[in-house]
Each structure stands twice: as C-alpha cells, then as structure tokens.
Amino acid sequence: MPALYIAGKTAMNHLRALTAKFKPQNVTRLTQYNAAMRAVSQSRLYSTPGALEPFLNGSNSNYLEEMYDAWLANPKSVHKSWDTFFQNSSVSAPSGPMLNNPAPSGSLPAVAHSQSRTQTSARADKIVADHLAVQSLIRAYQIRGHHVAQLDPLGILHADLDSTIPFDLITSMDKLGYYGLHESDLDKVFRLPVTTFIGGNEPAISLREILKRLENTYCRHIGLEFMFINDGDQCQWIRERFETPEILKFTNKEKRRLLARLIRSTRFEEFLARKWSSEKRFGVEGCEVLIPALKTIIDVSISKGVDDVIMGMPHRGRLNVLANVIRKDLEQIFCQFDPKLEASEEGSGDVKYHLGVYHERINRTTNKQITMSLMANPSHLEAVNPVVQGKTKAVQFYRGDITGQKVMSILLHGDAAFAGQGIVYETFHLSDLPSYTTYGTIHVVVNNQIGFTTDPRMARSSPYPTDVARVVNAPIFHVNSDDPEAVIYVCKVAAEWRNTFNKDVVIDLVCYRKRGHNEMDEPMFTQPLMYKQIQQQVPVLKKYADKLISEGVLTLQEYEEEVAGYDKICEEAYTRSKDEKILEIKEWLDSPWPGFFAPSGDPKSMTCAPTGLSVEILQHIGNVASSVPIEDFTIHRGLSRILKGRAAMIKDQMVDWALAEYMAFGSLLKDGIHVRLSGQDVERGTFSHRHHVLHNQDIDKKTCVPMNHLWPDQALYTVCNSSLSEFGVLGFELGFAMANPNALVCWEAQFGDFNNTAQCILDQFISSGQTKWVRNNGIVLLLPHGMEGMGPEHSSARPERFLQMCNEDSDIYPEYTEEFEVTQLFDCNWIIVNCSTPANYFHVLRRQILLPFRKPLIIFTPKSLLRHPEAKSHFDEMKTDTAFQRIIPDEGLAAQNPNDVKRLIFCAGKVYYELAKERVNRKLEKEVAIIRLEQISPFPFDLLKVELNKYPDAELIWCQEEHKNIGYYDYVRPRFRVIVQFKRPVWYVGRDPSPAPATGNKNTYLTELQDLLDMSFNLKAFKA
C-alpha cells in the first residue's frame, strides 16, 4: 500500500479519537483544520505526506477533537464529506484497520511511532465502543422494554408473566458496566443513530437523558412489541410515533371529550347495576376505558375516509358498546331486561349480551354519516372473528373498495380466549391472503388478566395472550388501561397504522375485572389477593377527573353536571322502555337486506322461478367451459384432453358433474349474480374434475378463469383456494354470504368429513342463526361424501349430524297445499340434499338463488360419480321446462307394473348406481323398484306418499351404504312410518352400527358392500 495512501487513511482514522464534548478553542485554527481535512478527503495532500504532520502529531491532534465537537453542535460546520463520515462512525463505525494495524515501518515514522498516536488510538477505541454501547442500549429497550413496562393497573401482576428484568435493560446504575459504560459517562453527549427518535430535533444528547427518554418511552404505561416485524420502514414508522419526546400532549378539548366518554362508559354500567342488580350483564367495569378507546379508533378511521365499520366481540362489555359506541337506542337495550316482555313471533331470540345490531348514524366528531354493525355472537367467544372478516370482505367487494379505505373491521377479544382458541390463529392467517384480506383489522384485547376463574399462568404458555399475532407481523401495543391518555394515543396510532399499511394491529388493554365472571359470581373463591386489591382500587373515572380538575381543565361543578346529564338520559330511556310491549328481535338485525323480502313475507304467496335454461345458453356455457378463451395461453396436455372431452359431451348435449356446476354458475353470472367458491383446492377441484382456473405452463402465475369470459356484462366469478382451515374459512364465507342476498356463496370441504372441525360454525351460526338472530343466509356447503373404500376420514360427511339439527317434526304429516314445496323450504332452518344426477345438482344450485328467501343449503357431493359413465345428464333434463326433483322415481319395468313389485328400495346418493347395477345383474328389474331421495330435508312427504301408494304390496326397504347409526336412517324411518300410518314396516339394509364411519381395509369394504347388495335383493330376507 503506498505510503501517501496510508497517510491519508491514518488522518481519517484519527477522527475516531475525537471526544464527545464540544469545546471550541480557536475558530481560526478550526477553520484551517477544516480546510486541511477537506484537502485530505479530496486526496490533494496524499502526494505530500509531510503536509499531514501538523495535524497528526500529538501537539495538534486536538484539532480533530475540535472539528468533531463542532460537528456535534452543527453538522454543517464541517465539509459534507466529513459530515457523512461522522454520521457513519457514530452509528456503526468499527475500528478501522489503521487503528489496530499501524502503518508499515518507514511510512510516516513521525506519526506511526509517536506516543500521542497511541493515546489517540486508545481514545478512538473508547469513542467507538461507547457509541456502539449506546446503540445496543437503545436497541435493547426497543426490543425488550415492554417486559418492564408498568402495565397492570393493580400493580400486582406482570403482564408477561415474568417478574425478572431482562439482563440488557439498565434499571440501575450498576448495570451500566454490562455495556462498558460508567457513571462518569452519564453526562457525555452521544450522537444518536438514525434508528431512534428519542432525540427529537436534537442530534445528540447526554447518556443520562438517553436513559430517561428510553424509560419514558418503553417502560411506563405503554409496552411496545414491534421489533420482530421484518419491514424496516414499518419499524421506523412505529419508533417515530412513540419515541418522539412528549407525544402524550392533549388539548383541553380532547381531554374533556375523553372524560365525557369515560363518564358515559362508567355511569352506564352503574345504572344497570342499580336497576338490575341480580341480572347477568357481563359489564366492562375495570376496563371502562374501552369505550373511549373504540370511539377514538372509529373517529380517526373515519377522518381517514372509512364510513362503514363492522365489529365483532364477546359478551363482556357488549351492552356498553351497543349503547355508547354503536349508539343503539337505550330503551331498546333496557327493555331486554324486562322479564314480562313477550317473545317475538319469529325465532327464539337470544340473550341480550349475544345480540348484534346494524345502525346508521352521524359521527359527531367528524360530522360524517357512518354505518356501524356489531355481529351477533354466541358464547363461543372468538367464533365470530372469521364471520366479521367475511362480511367485511363482502362489503368491500360490493362497494369496489379494493384497499379497505372505506370499510374496515374491528375485533374485540378477551385475553384468555385470544390465547386459547385456535380460531384466532386461523383468522389471522387469512389476513393477508388475496381473496380473504380485509386490508387490516384492529384487534382490541380486553385483558382482564383472568379467564373465568383461571389464572393466566395456568391458561397460556406464551408470555402475553397476544403472542399469536406475531405470526403475521402485527405490531402489539400493550397499555395500562388506568392511563386513559396513553390508551387514546395508542388507539390513534393503531388506526393510523391500519390506514397506512393495511395490516392488522393489536391493542392489549391491560385492565382488571371488577366483578366475577358474571355479576352473580364470587371471584374471591379463586382470586382472593387480586380482588382484595380491586376492592381498594380507585376507579379510572375518578382518577382522571381528579387529574383534569387539578390541571384546571374543568371544574368540579362541570364534572358533576356532565355526570348528572348522562344519568338523566339513562333515566328517561328507562321510562320509555316500559312502553315496549313486544320484544322485537328484528330491532337487532346485524345484516339487514332492505328491499329483498316480499312486503307480506307470506309463504303462500311465494313461488320459485323456473330453474331450467334454454339449450342455447347451455350450449354457450359449455363451449366456453371446453376452451381457453384467451390467446397465447399454454395449458397442460392432460387438461387439453379434459377440454376435448367436455367439447365432445357438449356436442352430444350431455353434461357430467363438473359441467353441470359450470352451467349453474355461468347462468347465474349472466343474471348479475356474483358467484364465490372457496375452500381447499377448489380451483382445480380435490378430485381434479373442476379446473376453473387454468395455469399457463410457460409463464409463472399467469392464469385464466374462463368463467369470467362468458358474457360481456356478467357478474364476477370468484374462485379461490383457501388456507388449510375449515373453522376459519367456513366462518369467513358465512360472513361473506350475509352481506348480499343476491350472491351464491359456496364453501367446499376437501372431503366432507372435514366439516367436523368447523362444527362450531355449523351449530352456532348456520343451523340456528335464523332462530336466534333472524339472520337469513344462503350459504352453500359442498361436502364430498360416499363410501369408496378410502378409510374412515375420507368417506362420510356425517349426514346424521346435519339431519339431527333440522327443525322439522318427524311425527307430524304436514298440511299439503299447492305451494307445499316452497312452504316447506320457507319453514325449515336449512336444506339438505344428496343429488344423484348432474342435472339435479344444476337445478338445486340455481333454485338457491331463485327462491324468494334464503336458507343454508347442504349438498353431499359425490366422488366416484364425478366420472361415473352413468352419472351424466342430457340437456333435456336442464332445459327451460325442467326443475329440481326432490325425489327421482323408478321409471323402468317395475314402474310399468307396480302391482307386481315385491320390494321397493329407497336410497340416497351414490349407492343408487350400485343397486341399479346389481338389480340388472340379478335380472330383478320387474320385482324391485328403486326410488332416489334427492332432497332429504325438508322431507318430501307429499311425493313419497304418492310412490308408496303406487306400490301397495311391496316391502319397504331403506338402503344406505353408511353404517346404521350413521347416515340417514334414523331421520327417514319415523317419517316413512308417519306416511304409511305405521301400517307397513320399513326395513333397514346397510352396514352394522360402528363408531367409525368406514373401514380402512379394502377387502373389508368390498365384503361389506357385497353383503349390502345381497341383503337388498334377497327377496326372502325380511319374510317373518
């Protein structure tokens, strides 16, 4: 290395020996030095090493210190090249090679071997080490400061379940040594790195002030978890909003508004406690700040352009949220407590703290018209999460809100449920998926630090209940709920985060539960120490009111007038509530469909439009389904064969299962009906039969959805593979279907068996939603079902479970009218079918939309029938004058001579084809008739009665491939007996009872099947 280069490097390395204290001694010398250093930086002195000597020897090295001191005070006082160098050195400058490796012998001997150079080098090492230490110190607080934040209002628990202090946080001076710092360093000034904002407008502050500001930011009433986020800009955004000094500055107007909201929240709970002391209310006492928090989130979001807020929450605090956030009429809430109220005619209703509501009102902070809805939810606390997300996505979709700037969701949680229920994780994992994202949800956790009676140390393994949110890089803001201003600031930042980044964010309101799990519960049984402290706790309203009075923000008289004013509002509403004679459950609709239902709602006036189509429409849809509608698109060779096969079928005017579905969807799209199909692998189809999304074999991620190329002005078809979730995704699609009655929303299970992990949605929302909440819904469930020898987890969609939840009375033959079919459908809670032909599948999908009301539709779909040569339908079965067949009668030889029929077999689904084949093999076409039950519920009493009368001398057999305790038998048997008035027995043919839905052994499966067929056609089997 040339000596002149080494000389220049040596001069630059000496900069690391500068002190951190500004002591300008001679402005003239400093100016001269700057000029010299500028020359060094521009290599003008490299050719004259001696020129550097005056600035590198011991007597003049303080010039370097002077320049550094000047730079600390004013970065513009030095040349820009040295400004850049100082900035880099103060952030992360390591010891340079020339500091640790002096110049070679013979190079600059006057410098390399001087005692002053050694001293300067040591000082440089100290400067570098101290700056690195300060940077590490700042980072430690950013990462782990939340562990020592003062979050518990009671002052007895640690929010992270750990009382230890992280070793790298300085909470006492004796730990300075961990970083190589000493008390003597406290007043030294350090240039702050660009990864912190604690300096505000000051580029350098003392170590003492650094520690103070870090403590104030990270270790007081706000605990921040965000450094795990892998986006540097997002981390920097959060740091700026929390580290900037004196962020918690509120105007007197803002403080008074916050106090007014606290008064409403607190006095509402106290009013309920006075009027209905013995009623369960699941009040929010101990976290009264929740109401101002939510209103702040909404205010900020509305100011950013949001005008539709969809919320979900458990029961704790729901009545208060309804009253003071949604602004539901107080008299409507109070009348729910009246035990003398009559139930409404429709539905059983639900307890008051499960009800939802939809409300349009003016936001008084922004004076903008907004729509707010709180979704009804059962006691399955977090089950509403995906439902809210689905409805939010749907509203965004229909409004064309592709970035979530108009419609948003807020989810409230309890701490124990947030940590304990897996649906929280499933819902989080939908948050950034293209077809499921709602562009950011604000999660508010009411952290009571207890779950019913369970201590958090027994309820979770994670430090915080909110740790599940880390999987999607959602920032988590913990805050002490007894510091209202800290809470409000956190809520403002959370709303801004959601608006800026369209990503989830979590607010953890660390609070307490003033009473037991409900107001009748005794919490001292299980948490005596906690509740002794709670009894002594000063309510947050009093704390904050006293603070504002002491600050002169308002007077005691003004405070008391505010309290009295809201008390009067409650009393007047209470008086009006006495006039409510009937509990109108329709007042609590969370998803109204204005203009959809007929004015009278009388089923006798309802009819179903024809479901058949013209041959021309069928032909057109089939042609598109058999082609690639865009140019220069390379598809897989195997798919080319499939499309050719489709084209051949269309030419013959035939359809298989996939084409029938295509035609049902496509025809609805033509009529402006949005169709959405969601689930695991639905784009291709689990059984490789659908292929609704074509993939270019040469270009990654280039796809084509032919169904969106059917008509010029068609509705959009959405088909989307979901995450590997049933509970979350079914809940999401249920919520999506709530938003618009004029949409066909379908969820397909990969195998029907897998609906069991979504049982909560089925039980609590779909089967009973209309009864509890007058919540109409037209969601369609496609559940692959059938015994194929594929084992116990890939055979049965468990029809018996769905049938058990039907509201139809098995012991009463319904009154027959001309509108019997529509009346039955109107009265049922859901529709259950197992179609055996593609045409019937086509019709039932179209009927779902053409009905003048909405009911959930459960379809047990086939597997082997997807390609079965007999499971095809002709256009004639789908043309204009055709409709869904609730049963398919026998049309063969047996039907031509019904009096000669010895056995009448009823069945459902795929087993029909096995029975029909066996009947031919045994040449029993005249003796045995087979009738297919396509719509199982509501039960087609009227049609089956005709068929039973048609075969007066035939034995009646119910045949199913499922085990006796599984499937349809227990549902159909009493209904058949009612039809025949108990005069003819109905015999069972099928597999014996079993706790498992199917065998996993192929040989056993075949043996069972053969036994089933033998019993079905052994005409002597049931002769007593």
Ordered list of secondary-structure elements with their pairings:
Blueprint: H1 3-13, H2 27-41, H3 53-56, H4 62-73, H5 80-92, H6 97-100, H7 109-112, H8 115-144, E1 189-191, E2 204-206, H9 207-218, E3 222-225, H10 232-243, H11 252-275, H12 290-303, E4 308-312, H13 318-324, H14 330-334, E5 357-363, E6 368-374, H15 384-399, E7 407-414, H16 415-420, H17 422-428, E8 441-447, H18 456-459, E9 476-480, H19 484-501, E10 505-510, H20 528-536, H21 540-551, H22 556-577, H23 615-625, H24 637-651, E11 654-655, H25 657-670, E12 674-679, E13 694-695, E14 703-704, E15 717-721, H26 727-739, E16 743-748, H27 759-766, H28 769-773, E17 780-784, H29 799-804, H30 820-827, E18 831-833, H31 838-850, E19 857-861, E20 873-874, E21 887-888, H32 893-896, E22 903-907, H33 911-921, E23 928-933, E24 935-937, H34 941-950, E25 955-963, H35 969-979, E26 986-991, H36 1002-1017
Parallel strand pairs: 4-6, 4-7, 7-8, 8-10, 9-10, 12-15, 12-16, 16-17, 17-19, 18-19, 22-23, 22-25, 25-26
Antiparallel strand pairs: 1-2, 3-9, 5-6, 11-20, 13-14, 18-24, 21-23
